[in-house]
Structures are given as structure tokens and as C-alpha cells.
Amino acid sequence: MKFSIDRQEKYNTLKVKAEKLDSTIAPELKSELQAIHGQGIVNIIIDLSEVKYIDSSGLSSLLVGNRMFSENDGTFILAGVSEHAMKLIKISQLDKVLSILPTVEEAVDAVFLLDIESGLLGEIE
Known about the structure:
Strand order of the largest sheet: 1-2-4-6-7
CATH topology: Transcription Regulator spoIIAA
Structural class: alpha/beta
């Protein structure tokens, strides 16, 4: 398996353990994201710190994941995106669609912040 999963109460972190997120592992990533989503997990952080290159199929798998988790008011955050991968994301203008943070720690903080915000909004309504 080219992934590791860290399961926490409020979120899961899926670490991609490959230098290339391309057509060889993108289908596996989609399946893994579907399985996690199917378990009722609503918040996920994708750790891309080991990924140096992403192709169109890799970007597609990330977009599928983003759509899946966002549709259920969940959080889908990319963390640790390399400079080269970030260039490809920006060229594709996906930096406007995807939530991207520099580190996993910042992504974890964002998940908790969003959870607190949604709780406060629920109390106001």
C-alpha cells in the first residue's frame, strides 16, 4: 500500500507514500478515499509531503475526494504540498478550489477551528 492512515476522533490523515501521484496510484487513492468516506469520516487531511510530482489523474483523484468530503459539510485539506506539485495545482487553477495548508499540524488546527465555528453557528441558528 502506498498510503498510511492516521485515525483520530475528529479527522483522518492519509499520507501518500510515493514520489509520484500519477495514473499508477491515483485509482488506489480514489478507492481509499471512498472507503474512508464510507466509514462515516467527514474530515480528512491528505499529507503530500513525500509527493514531488502530480499528473492529471492524480489531480482528478484529489478533486473527487474534495467533492466527496465537501458535499457532507466535511473538510478536505491538502498539506505539505511540494513546490513543483503546487506549481501544477496553480497552473490548473485548482488552488482556488482545494484547501491547501503548508503543514499537517496547521491542517489539524484548521479542522478543529472549523468544527468549533460550525458548532457556534449551530447554536446561533
